[in-house]
Amino acid sequence: MIFIAAYMALLSMLNVYRAYTSIQNAIDQSAKQISEYSYIAKKLGYIYRDRLLQTMRESLAIRQKKMLNTIQVFFNASAERL
Q1: 3-state SS, residue 19
Q2: Which tens digit of pLDDT belongs to each residue from 56-77?
Q3: From its phi and psi, is residue 45 left (phi > 0), alpha (psi between -120 and 50) or beta?
Q4: What is the Cα–Cα distance from 38 to 44, expressed in whole angstroms?
Q5: Other Cβ atoms within 10 Å of 27 Cβ, number
Q6: SS3 state at 45
Q7: 20 to 30 A from 55, CA-CA: which of 16, 22, 73, 78?
Q8: Per-residue pLDDT tens digits for 35-61
Q9: How many Å apart are CA 51 and CA 41, to the nearest integer?
Q10: What is the 3 state secondary structure string of the chain?
Q11: How far is Cα 62 from Cα 56, in angstroms, rounded to an integer?
C-alpha cells in the first residue's frame, strides 16, 4: 500500500514538473516572438513614427488651443467695441 502511495506521489510530482516546463516553454516562446516583432518594428521605424506622430498630435493640440484662444480674444474685443 505504501509503495502505491509513493508511486502515485512520484507520478503527481512528475506531472506538475511536466506542466511547469510546458508553461515555461510557452512563456519563453512568446517572449521571443514579442522581442523579434519589436526589433523588426524598431528597425522599420514604426516605433519612431508612432512617437513622432504622438509629438505632432500634441503640438497640433497646443496650436489649436492657442488659435481658439486668439479667436475668443478677438471676438471679445469686437463685442466690447460694439
Answers
A1: helix
A2: 889 989 989 999 888 888 888 8
A3: left
A4: 10
A5: 10
A6: coil
A7: 73
A8: 898 888 778 777 777 788 888 889 989
A9: 13
A10: CHHHHHHHHHHHHHHHHHHHHHHHHHHHHHHHHHHHHHHHHHHHCHHHHHHHHHHHHHHHHHHHHHHHHHHHHHHHHHHHHC
A11: 10
**Cα distance between residue 75 and residue 82, in whole Å:** 11
As a whole number of angstroms, the distance between CA 1 and CA 75 comes to: 95
Please, which residues have CB within 8 angstroms of residue 41's CB and are 6 or more apart in sequence? 47
* Start-to-end C-alpha separation, the chain: 104
Please give the backbone phi and psi of residue 44, each rounded to the nearest 5 degrees, phi first: -80, -10
Q: Note the residue count of the chain.
A: 82
Question: One-letter amino acid identity for 43?
Answer: K
Cell 500634441 locates to 58
